[in-house]
Specification:
The complex is a heterodimer of chains A (about 500) and B (about 325).
Chain A (H helix, E strand, L loop, with lengths): L3 H31 L3 H27 L4 H8 L2 H8 L5 H26 L3 H5 L2 H16 L2 H10 L2 H31 L3 H24 L4 H5 L9 H4 L4 H44 L1 H28 L4 H29 L7 E4 H15 L6 E3 L5 E4 L1 H19 L9 E8 L2 E8 L6 H4 L19 H11 L3 E6 L5 E8 L2
Parallel strand pairs in A: 2-4
Antiparallel strand pairs in A: 1-3, 4-5, 5-7, 6-7
Chain B lengths: L1 H28 L6 E7 L3 H13 L1 H4 L2 E7 L3 H10 L4 E4 L5 H4 L4 E9 L2 E6 L14 E4 L4 H12 L8 E4 L2 H9 L5 E5 L2 H9 L3 E6 L10 E6 L3 H4 L1 H20 L1 H12 L3 H5 L5 E2 L3 H9 L2 H15 L17 H8 L1
Parallel strand pairs in B: 1-2, 1-3, 6-7, 6-8
Antiparallel strand pairs in B: 3-10, 4-10, 4-11, 5-8, 5-9
Helix pairs in contact in B: 2-10, 2-11, 7-8, 10-15, 13-15
The chains are: A alpha+beta (about 500), B alpha/beta (about 325).
Chain lengths: ~500, ~325
């Protein structure tokens, strides 16, 4: 007989199989709860279908036998469990239909998921395609309904072969189509952080498909004709060596872990960013910081004014001097007003009016503001033609202007005019992206997390209050979008303003 | 994430290496090349296993240079499907699956025995005490097997047809559970399932009919078979296997109890339950088998079987064919020499 080691490994693998199924189950439920959206629902559907199909197939194998003791022990852990399953009370029609349900639902959820992820415009426009996805699974489930199936095959025995080939055909077609759509999508995503996440999810889906393909060829009709099948017994032709089983389970565990981590991380991202929101809000609410900075700055300026007033008083005779001081005062006054206005804007962003706009109008306005501040600096602009966004022109251009000035300030200290600021706009997946990129000083790792917090600034000047990025972020959210950024110390920064595609 | 990836890749390579070295291990085990390995399909009951287990234990196969590897199946049709797929070499079938070799799906190279394993059992609690009570009742049956055959015969005797009852098509194991749990009123099945039901239900289980009751109308034949063409290509192996089988057959006749214990050991069940099955067949010796062949009795059994299948609607008249086309009498005769 076998060595103890091999037996031990088999048990471990069996546990892995059970744990994998449980893991798929629980994780998909968990992710579904955490992230109630379509893609998690589809993945949940795929996992459920797999579990249903496998229960049916394992039931069938337990009752039918014909596989080696070794494989039996692998699939059922031990012969006692196998015989328990073997004696499970169920008619052959119920058993076959269980397999049918899992077998036909899996490709359906798979294609739904692929269509959902796909950003091919033609597919998005033709909504009927999504409805069409229902057609084959529903049709198959009707045809394979035991009484319907028996009726059909009674009329003509040849129907069975046709039905078997037909269903196998659409399953393969759905699967190939889905794999193509997913891979194509992964290939065409331009933004790195999107692509990375997407590839994780795709590899997980591919591992589910591998799992499905283990027994996808098990035609329910063979189960209906438990003792009279003339079409052979599928699983018997595909009995794999224990090592292959182990390999497949292993691959699956790895990808399931990676995939779900990807999904969860993705979910976590959202959970975390909303938590971030709460933290930021709290910080913002903690008036102490904000007010003290504000009051301190205003006080500084007023103190400066007091000095000027004193000087005016002692120089009342010299009109020239007085003029100089009042000019300074007026400038200070404008400055204070501007600060107050800026603070007011970033606190009170509820007044955002979204209307359809040419994106170019917004960027032009932002450039105008930018050139008022830096008349002699240039920005490389790359725009896609004819792109509309739903936006508040004033706020959005102010936000872009903020990003542009930040970028300009990051390159100001670079020698020999090496610095470069690029403003580009393009469409990716469901977003219109406004990207501001510079090759400036970058942001250190510790600071990257804090840059959106209000009153956070590294620029030690009287003119910067650290409200810029918080404002941009708030504006992005008001536009139902988000602000993302990638930055590395000394290697420049890239800010992405993601707006929903209009 | 990169670290995790590289860890996994290393783990994967490690696993593959373990796999490879393991390969070397199993290669060593298959050193003895003088013996030919024959994969034998059986069903987990005494009738199916007694000869082959006796042969393994007493070394009659080994003497012929045959190493037997046993593969368990639940039913005959599956065994024939497995023969076709090439995953096994030799198989044992009960009466119900014989329609398939007649239709050309397999060739019979040895007769095993006339069985008495099939029964129709009624539940007294549910008011089924004799065959007439079956009318309007729910009966669990394994369609396409001898379970269906015995039910057909029983219903016919009571003057009933399948339209007079409700049939639930189940696998043989589920039938046991269905009967014990009271989900059905009667069942048609075979040993050892019949014993399991009786042991569990006691007096509530009433045997309504069995093969012996219809022995003259319906010989309940069990046979050994191979896939079409196998006998020609593997003449020598098949002859040696049959020789080993026949010697084991003779040993068995005198040692029914001992063989029952061996069978119980092989299928990991209680020896008592296997001992209950020693009456499931009419066990014969090689000598008796030769007599059956020579006087044409055996051919008569198989002919009668074809007629039964035609009567039951499972075989068309056009599909009937001469017995010697699918029963290889020569193999039996040569092996008995």
């Amino acid at each position: 007989m076998k060595g103890i080691d091999l037996l031990y490994i088999e048990r471990v693998i069996f546990y892995m199989l059970i744990i994998l199924m449980l893991f798929l189950f629980l994780s998909s439920i968990l992710v579904l709860i955490l992230k109630r959206n379509k893609e998690t629902f589809y993945i949940f559907g795929m996992c459920m279908s797999l579990a249903i199909m496998f229960s049916g197939v394992l039931l069938y194998i337990a009752k039918k036998g014909g596989i080696s003791r070794e494989t039996q022990e692998f699939l059922f852990f031990n012969l006692e469990i196998k015989s328990k399953i073997q004696y499970f009370l169920i008619t052959v029609y119920e058993m076959g239909y269980i397999i049918a349900i899992g077998r036909y639902m899996f490709p359906m959820f798979l294609l739904f998921l692929a269509l959902h992820f796909s950003m091919i415009p033609w597919l998005q426009r033709n909504y009927w395609l999504k409805r069409f996805t229902f057609l084959m699974p529903v049709l198959s489930l009707i045809i394979y309904y035991p009484s319907v199936f028996l009726y059909l095959t009674n009329i003509h025995e040849g129907f069975q072969q046709i039905i078997a080939i037909g269903t196998m055909g659409w399953i393969i077609l759905y699967t190939i189509l889905s794999i193509f759509l997913l891979v194509y999508e992964a290939y065409s995503i331009e933004m790195e952080f999107f692509r990375r996440k997407f590839i994780l999810i795709v590899s997980f889906i591919l591992s589910l498909i591998l799992f499905y393909f283990l027994y996808f060829g098990q035609d329910p009709a063979q189960v209906y004709q438990f003792y009279a099948s003339k079409t052979g017994i599928y699983y018997m032709n595909t009995v794999l060596s224990i090592r292959t089983y182990i390999f497949i389970v292993f691959i699956n565990v790895i990808f399931a872990v990676i995939g779900f981590t990807g999904l969860l991380k993705y979910t976590n991202d959202i959970v975390q960013s909303s938590r971030e929101e709460v933290i930021i809000q709290r910080k913002f609410d903690a008036i102490s910081t904000g007010t003290s900075v504000f009051v301190h700055s205003i006080k500084n300026q007023l103190l400066a004014n007091r000095v000027i007033f004193k000087r005016i008083n002692s120089n009342l005779d010299d009109i020239e001097k007085v003029k100089e001081y009042t000019d300074a005062l007026s400038k200070q006054n404008e400055n204070i007003l501007m600060r107050i206005e800026e603070l007011y804007r970033s606190v009170k962003t509820s007044a955002v009016h979204l209307i359809p706009l040419r994106l170019s109008e917004v960027t032009e306005s932002a450039m105008e503001r930018f050139h008022q501040k830096y008349p002699d600096k240039t920005v490389h602009v790359e725009l896609i033609s004819k792109c509309n966004v739903l936006a508040d022109k004033n706020h959005l251009s102010e936000a872009i202007y903020n990003l542009l000035t930040n970028a300009q300030e990051a390159i100001n200290d670079l020698p020999n005019h090496e610095g470069m600021v690029i403003l580009s706009c393009y469409n990716v997946r469901q977003y219109t992206v406004i990207e501001v990129k510079d090759n400036g000083i970058g942001i250190s790792k510790e600071d990257v997390k804090k840059i959106c917090e209000p009153f956070f600034t590294k620029k030690n000047s009287n003119y910067n209050w650290g409200m810029g990025l918080h404002y941009v972020r708030t504006i992005a959210r008001e536009h139902f979008g988000s602000l993302r950024y990638e930055s590395e110390k000394d290697n420049g920064s890239t800010f992405y303003l993601l707006l929903p595609k209009f | 994430m990169k670290k995790l990836f590289s860890f996994m890749v290393i783990a994967l390579i490690g696993l593959m290496l373990v796999g490879c070295s393991d390969d070397g291990g199993t290669g060593e085990a298959a050193k003895g090349e003088e013996t030919t390995k024959v994969k034998v399909a059986y069903m987990p009951n005494y009738a199916s296993l007694n000869t082959v287990v006796a042969g393994i234990k007493t070394g009659t196969f080994k003497d012929e240079g045959i190493e037997v590897e046993l593969v368990e199946f639940a039913d005959g049709p599956t065994i024939i499907a497995a023969l076709e797929s090439g995953s096994i070499d030799v198989g044992y079938i009960g009466p119900g699956a014989h329609v398939l070799p007649i239709q050309g799906e397999a060739e019979i190279f040895a007769f095993s025995q006339l069985g008495n394993a099939d029964e129709v059992i009624g539940s007294a609690k549910k008011g089924v005490g004799n065959i007439e009570d079956l009318k309007g009742k729910t009966i669990a049956v394994a369609t396409g097997t001898s379970s269906e055959t015995i039910l057909d015969l029983t219903l016919a005797e009571a003057g009933l047809t399948k339209d007079d009852v409700t049939l639930m098509n189940m696998d043989a194991s589920a039938i046991v559970t269905a009967m014990i749990s009271g989900s059905v009123d009667a069942v048609a099945t075979w040993s050892p399932n019949t014993n399991a039901i009786k042991n569990e239900m006691g007096d509530d289980a009433v045997m309504l009919s069995n093969n012996a009751r219809y022995a003259d109308q319906f010989p309940s034949i069990a046979s050994w078979l191979v896939k079409p063409g196998y006998a020609e290509k593997n003449e020598d192996v098949l002859l040696r296997f049959t020789k080993g089988l026949f010697k084991a057959m003779d040993y068995r006749v005198d040692n029914l109890g001992e063989v029952a214990k061996w069978v119980a050991e092989e299928i990991a069940v209680d020896p008592d339950s296997v001992l209950q099955q020693t009456g499931d067949g009419d066990w014969i010796t090689t000598k008796q088998l030769m007599t059956l062949i020579e006087d044409g009795t055996l051919e008569g059994y198989y002919k009668k079987q074809q007629e039964n299948f035609v009567d039951a609607g499972r075989l068309t008249k056009e599909e009937m064919r001469p017995v010697e086309e699918y029963v290889l009498f020569d193999v039996m005769k040569n092996a008995a020499k």
